[in-house]
Amino acid sequence: MMITAAVLAEICSALPLSGSIYIWAAESAGPKYARFFGFLVAWWSCTAWMTFTASNCQATANYVVSQMAVWEVNFPGGVGNDNIKWRTLIWIISEGFLLLSVAINYLPPRMYSGIFKFGVFIMMLDFFLCLIWLPIGVHNTYGFRSASEVFTSTYNGTGAPAGWNWILCFLFTAGTMTGFDASGHIAEETKNASVTAGKGILTSALATGILGFITAILFLFCTPDLDTFFALDAPQPFVQVYALALGKRASIFMTIIAIIGLVLNTSVSIVAASRLIFAVARDGVLPGSKWIGHVDSKGQPKNAVTVIYIFGAILLCSILPSQVAFTSLVSAGGIPTIAAYGLIPLLRLFMTPNEFKSSHFHLGKLAKPFYVSAVLFNGLIFAVSISPFYFPVTADSFNFACVIFGSITVFAIASFWFTPVDKWLRREQVLQQLNATHEADGEECQSSAHEE
Q1: Each residue of 313-345: pLDDT tens digit?
Q2: How does it sit in the membrane (predicted)?
Q3: What's the rounded Cα separation, in Å, for the pair 411 and 114?
Q4: What are the structural domains, with CATH classification, of the chain?
Q5: C-alpha distances out from residue 75 to 72, 261, 355, Å
Q6: Global pTM?
Q7: To 10 degrees, what angle do helices 20-70 and 237-246 make?
Q8: Which residues contact 356 (CB under 8 A, 6 or more apart)?
Q9: Is the separation of the CB atoms in 27 and 359 below 8 Å?
């Protein structure tokens, strides 16, 4: 994913615009196919970011209701997704967290900087508590798992062939290794964006990789034996792990820290998503584009934030009839992003291999090897994400992600055909951007020659 981040940082530096990722795809395709791939990635990205907001709120609600399992609270009808009262409780809490996350985005921009810094502090506090306090608790209670278990043992709970069962482990990490393109979406509001936005993409992927690796190894040593772990019945089993290792009261503190971090994380994702929606609407492709693409007196796309709230609130309602329906919807949330991550280097490799040399993160001789690596790796992650998670496949275990992704793609192609050429991503716009980068490339060459 660091290689993928380097590929995105390269083009981000040359094109630091709101709604970046679909612009990057369009310009990577060149003038002839720019409009088609722009539509495709715009639909993919909007769906992914807006769906992520809803799924994050439901994940936050799971932390809250999991405390009921810790304290053995008797819930009417029982704890489980087959109980409509239980699903209603999760829905109400999820909607509340969505409202809170959106409300933060209505605050003045000068206040939001402090909130973002506080969010980073909370997440690092959570990380270091898990790194220090959790191992102490595990040592004093049920004990660590051995290095042999952590590094050499395998468990097949999927029914898949051994090789594919191992590959499915990417499901655990792939979801956290996406979204680092967010700094590109707010490039137009960033000082020295051609450097800062690209640097944000790289540092985000690097921090996730390093801290994520440490966390994964830590949890493998600190989880109870598999029989105990799989017997945990809370929607978020790590709340019960905290209770087993640290005690019930301490688990409340860890749960609160996690909830605050998730709410602020959701709020930050809304910032990126709203800029993406704003950019697409500004170009006139969405129904009600004039209203959605409006900014307030401080230059903030508040109407786009409202659209994200409405979409997320409606999506969360799918919890009520069926938890499986909601899970299928949100499981498809990361797939369009992964597809875009793989498509952009593919287009760069075959369509525009010699463009954007003015980028502050130009890959030079590493460009083509990086493009190939990014295409292959994201192709693998895409295949894992649409794969069945349990074998043999039944109606209950079918992964609807492929159906949802296919539907999004069909809508994208349909909107491409039926939207007039002069309404969105006109050829002149694409050429204007390419000419701007060509001029920058020429200035870069002249500067280098002068220095020599």
Answers
A1: 998 988 888 766 666 666 667 889 999 999 999
A2: Multi-pass membrane protein
A3: 39
A4: 1-450 (1.20.1740.10)
A5: 9, 27, 60
A6: 0.86
A7: 50
A8: 10, 11, 13, 14, 15, 27, 362, 437, 441
A9: no
